[in-house]
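Subject: Sanity check before I submit

Could someone independently write out the structure tokens for this chain? I want to compare against mine line by line before I put it in a report. The sequence has 435 residues.
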Amino acid sequence: MNITRRKFISNTAAAGAVLAAAPYIKGQSVTRYTVALIGCGWWGNNILREAMAAGNSDVVALCDVDEKLLNDTHAAVQKSTNANPRRFRDYRELFTKIRPQIVIVATPDHWHPLITIEAVKHGAHVYVEKPIGHTILEGRAMVNAARAANRVVQVGTHRRVSPHNLSAHQFLKQGKLGKVGMVRAFVHYPGGAGQYVPNSEPPKTLDWNMWCGPAPLNPFNSRIHPRGWRNHLDYANGTLGDWGIHWMDQILMWTEEKYPKRVFSTGGRHVKRDNTDAPDTQVASFEFESFTAVWEHRQYAGNRAEKTHENQPVGCYFYGTEGTLHIGWLDGWTFYPSNRNAQIIHQDAQLHEPDQQNIKELWADFIKSIQTGQKPVSDIETGHLSTNMALLGMLSMKLGRSVHWDGAKERIIDDPFANTLLKREYRRPFEYPKA
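---
Independent answer below. Compare away.
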């Protein structure tokens, strides 16, 4: 008979939860680190709260081009710890005045490379948000800079330490899904055409020129700052670059292959009529040696039609000869066996508030890596490979054709023009980082 979804926590799942929790429950050194946060927005504050809660961070500096966000974060730190961190509007000044041991980089995507590279050159270990950069060659420069400075750089792909993700991957590694030939990753949100908002003068608290930094200096629009920039292609790479990297990372976490051989993507703006310019609809295909991965997203029609969490239709379906495994977010993971008489297996998610994340576990792994010299679970090169998948999908869509990827050399085969899109010109006086 067909059994409906029911909770089943196996020994494998329990082991995954223990592995995720252990680093921050016991065995921590009492060593404290001076910490600077660069990017005092919503997610930067989420990271900083976990860093302070871990009990090993002394917040000595905050930096943001928006004085309101900067002052709000400063007040929150003072309330939480009685500390009085120095405030900066320009990260370059911060590094001339203070040498923090750890730097959290939680700016918009287009700023990640320059700040991370500057931080490691000044001797700091770095926790940088995903995706690591806006173009592929920026990522290679970040990896090389981290290695040259012998610094730990952790990327904020916190699903690598989520208890239900860990146990799902143990399920996969044990072969319980059989031979996997296809993975489908997806994010679908509700929504409609949206509303156009005219450009305006930036708030007096905001240094808009510095916010744009190495990217084009476009007119200010309230739909870009503080949280809408992810769907503006001068500063980010849309849903695939933002959400997609989490699920590209889950694919690479499972497979022993490091990169796809061929990538093709198509999509467009079929519904949206607002200020954004990222695709509201996109499909990408990633051909590996032993399987095919597919990405799809739409920024409309996210509803109960998907067999996932009714409020968050996201995740990866791994399709194998023994059944289908869905690794989700709010809904944990579920295995649907090919044998209809067999039991459906499910494990709930274990997430932290606010915003249902596992930053706590990822920060603990980061600190442990600094103390031991071991690579972190979301090492900069790991984040680079996952970011590359998303960026290759965007690159193919912009080109309107498929690309054949030499992952070892990080070049597109027999396509000189496509290779020019592996980087972009920076706005002066900023210089594109050299790998």
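---
OP: Matches mine. For the report I'm noting this point. The longest helix spans residues 380-399.
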